[in-house]
Amino acid sequence: MAANPGSGTKKLSGGNGGAAALLLFLLLCCTASMALTPDGEALLELKVAFNATAGQRLGSWRAADPNPCGWEGVSCSFPDLRVQSINLPYMQFGGIISPSIGRLTKLQRLALHQNSLHGPIPAEIRNCTELRAIYLRANYLQGGIPPGIGDLTHLTILDLSSNLLRGAIPATIGSLTHLRFLNLSTNFFSGEIPNVGVLGTFKSSSYVGNLELCGLPIQKGCRGTLGFPAVLPHSDPLSSSGVSPITNNNKTSHFLNGVVIGSMSTMAVALVAVLGFLWVCLLSRKKTGVNYEKMDKQTLPDGNEKPTPTMSLD
Hints:
Layout: H1 5-34, H2 38-50, H3 52-57, E1 74-76, E2 83-87, E3 109-111, E4 118-119, E5 133-135, E6 140-141, E7 157-159, E8 166-167, E9 181-183, E10 188-192, E11 212-214, H4 248-295
Parallel strand pairs: 2-3, 3-5, 4-6, 5-7, 7-9, 8-10, 10-11
Antiparallel strand pairs: 1-2
């Protein structure tokens, strides 16, 4: 039987196609395994946003790396290779904090203090729900504190001091039950410090340098826009003001305080009156003593001195 030359060619061609497909699959797998992790891509966006200085100082941050765990200032958890810490203080960065920070969902420590960063604190930071410590002091950050920071339930340290931040302090910070250190000093915050949760437990040093702040933590009363107290005497405070209504106990306390103050005033007046009376008596006794001494020198008509008793004040 004569061989069919076409059949052999077809079999060979089919074998080559399968080998090529297998080779392409292996190549794609290798390429995927060598691609930078999503955390690494987020960090590269941060690097670009920092400024040209970051390009010089962060030379180890390369897109060709499979993960960012060997990059300067970066530490990761194992074995998942997720970014846990960014520690880059004193680096002279002058750009902004990229919203890509919100993609680092396993980040526990963010330390970018003592740089020249400006712009707002990105609202996306609320997605970094594992954060324990935020150090952003001594920059030029602007805007307000994102209310979403109250979602960072594991946060123990929040240092935003020495920036250009302004506006009200979010009451949501009060819900951070693990917060042990708070420094919002030397900014431009204004309004009443919410006396809620942990916000009422920090000393005035946490808020010093914000001239327009008021409230119980700094022992400074708040005033309305017309210069009058925000809560007028004998008036019912609005529920939106955040001040608890005056209770009967408070009224009783005020009454007792008035009684005590009135009693003390009466006692003071009585004491002054008694001292005045004693002083008059003393002057009267001195005058009487002088008169007795004059009488002591008088003589009788026969020329003999009349013995006159003398009175001494000793």
